[in-house]
Amino acid sequence: MHASDPPPLAPAPAAPVLAGPVLAAPVPCAFGPAQMRKAELELALLAAPLDARRRDAYLDDLLEFASVRTGLTHVVLPEFGHPLALRCGTADIIGLLRVVRELVYDFPMRATPRRILVLGAHVGYGALWLARRFPEARIVCVEPCAASFRVLNQNILPYQRIQAFCVAAWHGPTRLGVRSRMLGDWGMQLHDQMPDADRTVPARAVGELLALAGWDQVDLVVCDIQGAEVAVFADPGQRWLRTLDTLAIFVHESGRAAFLEHARDCFDPAQYGRSGGGDLTVFERHVPFRAIARPAPPAMALIGCEDALYPVGLQDTPQTAWGFFVFDGDCCQLHPNAPGEAPARAIFPRELAGQSRFMATYRHAGRPAPAVVFSLLVVGADGGEIFRDSRTLLAGDRQEVEIALPVLSGPHHLILQTEMAPDTRHSYNAWAQFLSPRIG
After folding, report:
1. Which of 127, 291, 294, 390 is 20 to 30 A removed from 357 (C-alpha atoms)?
2. Which neighbouring-strand residues pair with 353?
3. pTM value?
């Protein structure tokens, strides 16, 4: 044997002799009598969707089926229109029965919600029931448990108007840890007073969750968050609470007193009624917010080149091609006259409906050039001046402008004006431009 040769292989050790029976690798359950009965009950229910007896038999069988197995199965209930995913051996079946048999999401409401936020959505059965109950509503589901979130995404997949975030609701951005589990994932209780290594669940305030969804307010919040209620409602001054019509919250007996103490500050009895039973409490605004909130006035462009004709009057503008012209669809050049001459004006008559802000960008595009004074004037129907704002821009300056106005309703004239600044000698290159002037 040469030094470069590999060493000989050692003989394989003899297989150990086991004292007990050898366990075979696990084999998935075959399609047996239980699966056959489940399928038969589903077909019978689909054939007679209004038969209460068949429905009860199916739900009873489903409870027994899910209690003695693990793994993913499906649920077929005619009202949902598509099969629902359900994890056997978990609290999913309990959550499903609360929704479809106990009807916990059928609490009465005065107003039909357009936006619904579900905190603690679990695997989505409640959100799907609300989607069925309110077919025009958009729904956001919030679920912190990653395992439940995966099933939630399967269940909401057919609905474009439902979106979900894998995050916890709290009083601010932080990370939480699992403090206890009462019923597996469904009873998971989170807390921020945990070792850093255990705080693996991201959390956000409700206002942040609404911003993630692209919402500025929410009509209905359904909350089932297993003890985190006090944290979520810790600040009664949160902006989203001011426009909320209904809160439906499931609070277990051990935490009810602490939550109701906070709720007293969040939900003024003069504005909200309180109802419910069992672990459900509903706070509902006496008069829906949409009925009492003044709608925001429509934004109105002063200049437009499409869809309609917009009147404009010109006063004392230079009699040149560059004296006044429109560009980029909603912008205008308004060249000032020589120093000492009358200001150049573009006058926009408008019928207003509660607008109170003027927005535009002022730009002095000339270089080199003397300074220009840009002005906004508001004139009433009687010809009297109501408001004036003036700003001086040097050559090359650009200024974003948002001006608070008196609330304006009825016919008014909005006047854009330019003139040379004091102590200037000429108006050469005084390219004064109003970009996207509008009122809202």
Report:
1. 291
2. 409
3. 0.61
Residues 439, 408: Cα–Cα separation, whole Å: 10
Catalogue all structural domains in the chain, each as residue range(s) with its CATH number: 30-103 (no CATH), 108-292 (3.40.50.150), 300-439 (2.60.120.260)
At 241-299, the pLDDT tens digits run 989 999 999 887 666 777 777 777 888 889 999 998 888 989 999 988 877 766 667 78
Do 350 and 412 touch, CB atoms closer than 8 A? yes
- CA dist 117 and 221 (Å) reads 5
| Token reading at 294 | 């003044």
User: Strand pairing partners for 418?
Assistant: 344, 374
**According to DSSP H, which parts of 197-288 are helical?**
206-213, 229-232, 253-266
d(CA 133, CA 136): 9
Q: What is the pLDDT of residue 233?
A: 83
Q: Which two tokens stand for residue 376?
A: 């906004």
Model pLDDT for residues 334-380, shown as the tens digit of each residue: 999 999 999 999 999 999 888 999 999 999 999 899 999 999 999 99
* H-run or E-run covering 57: helix 52-67
Cβ atoms of 189 and 85 within 8 Å: the answer is no
Residues in the chain, pLDDT under 50? 1-23
SS3 63: helix
CA count, 13 A, side-chain hemisphere, 245: 21
Exposed/middle/buried for residue 235 (C-beta within 10 Å: 0-12, 13-18, 19+):
middle
Question: What sign does the dihedral 140-146-151-154 (CA atoms) show?
Answer: positive
DSSP SS3 for 259: helix
Which residue, among 173, 285, 283, 179, has the nearest Cα to 231 in the 3D structure? 173
In angstroms, rounded to a whole number, what is the distance separating the alpha carbons of residues 425 and 418? 15
**Alpha carbons within 13 A on the beta-carbon side of 372:** 35
Q: How far apart are CA 286 and CA 272, in angstroms?
A: 5
* Beta-carbon contacts of residue 287 (< 8 Å; ≥ 6 apart): none
Q: pLDDT at position 11, please? A: 43
Type of residue at 324: F
Backbone phi, then psi, for 237, in 5-degree steps?
-90, 5
Q: What share of the chain is helix, strand, coil (3-state, %, to 5)?
A: 25, 35, 45
Contact call for residues 84 and 178 (beta carbons, < 8 A) = no
Please name every residue paired with 75 in a beta bridge, in sequence order, or none if there are none. 84
Report the run of H or E that residue 201 belongs to, with start and end: strand 201-205
Distance CA 220, CA 242 (A): 12
